[in-house]
Amino acid sequence: MKIKAEFQIPYYHYLNNKGELAENAPIQLSDDTLIKYLKVMTTIQIFDKKSIALQRTGKMGTYAPIYGQESIGTAIGMTLAPNDVFVPYYRDYATLYQRNIKLSDILSFWGGDERSMSFSYQAHDFPLCVPIASQCLHAAGAAFALKYQNTKNVALVTIGDGGTSEGDFYEAMNVAGAWDLPIVFVIKNNQWAISVPLEKQTRCQTLAQKAIAAGFQGVQVDGNDVFALHHVLENAIEKARNGEPTLIEAISYRLSDHTTADDATRYQPSHQVEEAKQLIPIERLKKYLLKQNILTEADIEKMNIEAEAEVEKNIEVYLSQNQQKIETIFDYHYAALPDYLIEQRAEAMEEFHHAHD
Ligand SMILES: Cc1ncc(C[n+]2csc(CCOP(=O)(O)OP(=O)(O)O)c2C)c(N)n1
After folding, report:
1. CA of 132 to the centre of ligand 1 (A)
2. 66-121 pLDDT, tens digit each
3. What CATH code is assigned to 11-324?
């Protein structure tokens, strides 16, 4: 017997929970970069809280929160170049925000108006994607196009831990390896796929090792550590520019309900939630910035106030937009509606008018 293949999965972590940076950390981030990190994460955390409030008060539809996972999307936004192609799943507000997508457009999406995802002003990025893992194939297609056109741009796609059990994920990974595509896959491993915990999702020791079967490197990174994320993403994006894909598994925790239609207290063990709360990325970054005298408490307070005002402005824009008519739910799928949908359409219109009279 001979060993035909062996592999290792590295894990990157530089900023500890006390806000101390490892002495041997092979990355330095400028004060301006770190302040931008905090600004984006603060804005998105406020956006998240207010979005939940909008849903709870009947002003928006179902919404997928990102509490506890703000740093992964922020790091992607910080490292991906404007002309690269970003292919999100549905918890990617931090990245979209940095790629100039209006927060009011994200609210419109969750308000049921998908026209807001056409991004006429950022046309090469993809819309939020709810059909799990399908975005991986779209990203592989985009990466193929970028390669075919001889650009040095890359596609970066995100997916949840549960999504990595889908065929679309494996197919996209396989073609990325086989065709040397300029692509980076980022798994936002928040430990849960709705109520299914990771240990029931897979027997794999890591999700990152799924890359090995596709013929390229998989790495794990502390998804609550902006230094490690920045380092790993920068390297992976650079490698992708030369036709070498990477799978990044960013470890985090979903400190929220799956969506506003869920109640996570029914299945997330409270001791686990308490442990995860000690690891919140924004708190860790604040500790570092305060310790290093890069920011003061007053600076952070000012940042909060400014972020709050920006989010409020976007909420006003969202609320002042004309709502789509209720019947549009039915109007764009069929050339001729089947009878049962004609009936449902009429019923929906009647209920809507009844509720708004
Ligand atoms: C193809 C498909 N199957 C099922 C669903 C229903 N669904 C929505 S979210 C979700 C769980 C996804 O979990 P994960 O990939 O871990 O991402 P997370 O929501 O935790 O960020 C499922 C099964 C869907 N949207 N699309």
Report:
1. 5
2. 999 999 999 999 999 999 999 999 999 999 999 999 999 999 999 988 888 888 78
3. 3.40.50.970
